Amino acid sequence: MLPLTITNVPFIFGQTLIVKGVADASSTNFQLNICPDENDVALHINPRFNRNNEVKTVVCNSYQGGKWGDNRVTGKTFPFQQGKEFTITVAFSPQEFVVTLPDKSNIHYPNYIGKYKYPVLIFEGEASFTSVEIKE
After folding, report:
1. Contact present, 84 and 20 (Cβ < 8 Å)
2. In terms of Cα–Cα distance, which of 37, 48, 51 is closest to 6?
């Protein structure tokens, strides 16, 4: 899939983002980026089936001022399957993002950039994203 950028998204704290998709049958990885603009990333969610010697790993990170953060959070489980549908939810508070993976396990990731609104979503990698919803 080519990168898809959605701008002017009203994702503010107190809301939950729900993303559904299907990982390609031969996917190495895909990513969802929640951003304050098209240059920085508050939350990078990157399920990696097999990418750069990282196998069955979920990586979260942030990118600001041209640099990736040092803090990487790796999920304890890998509930994604190539060729299968997935749902990722992201609950957003002023302090953190709580990412819920398809097996209902959670990753807590700090809101390092500290904004109350992230209006840009960027989808990349080897998956088809079929639904994006924001709930109060």
Report:
1. no
2. 37
Nearest one of 76, 79, 81, 98 to 89, comparing CA atoms: 98
Rounded to whole angstroms, the Cα distance separating 93 from 11 reads 11
Task: Report the alpha-carbon distance of residue 5 to residue 108 in Å, rounded.
Answer: 24
Using alpha carbons only, what angle is made at residue 17 by residues 120 and 4, rounded to the nearest 5 degrees? 40
**6 Cβ partners below 8 Å, 6+ apart?**
120, 121, 122, 123, 132
Rg of the chain over Cα atoms, rounded to whole angstroms, equals 14
For the chain, what is the largest distance between any 2 Cα atoms, rounded to a whole number of angstroms?
A: 38
Residue in 116, 100, 117 with CA at minimum distance from that of residue 108: 100
Single pTM value for the model: 0.94
44-68 per-position pLDDT tens digit:
999 999 988 888 999 999 999 999 9
